[in-house]
Model the fold of this input.
Amino acid sequence: MSRLADPDGDALLRLAEDGFDFSKPGLVEFSVDFRSWPPPRGAMACLSRDYPSASVCVIDDDHDGYLEFQVYALVSYELVTNIQSYVTELMAPYHGVCASWGVVRGASSL
Done:
């Protein structure tokens, strides 16, 4: 795997170093953060149209949380950066940003 000089490239390099098998599909979890919590009502409806797995994750009972969704696909730089870019554009009217993701370990045999 070639080194890409940004956080997504670094994360993919760490996965490769840990022995992740990029030749098999994996479950990738993406997070959408908002300027303020909770996000406007339409944000969840908009996100779930394209990503039916979307759910609300609350960090603490008072203020913090995010929306989360999963994609099952071959993990690549293009996949994670394209989805983050698309979802950030989709969530822009709601002041949301998709800038974090992770691979769910043990989910490559779904």
Observations:
- The domain at 7-104 is CATH 3.30.70.970 (Alpha-Beta Plaits).
- The chain has a mean pLDDT of 90.
- Strands lie at 26-34, 55-58, 65-73, 96-104.
- The first strand starts at residue 26 and ends at 34.
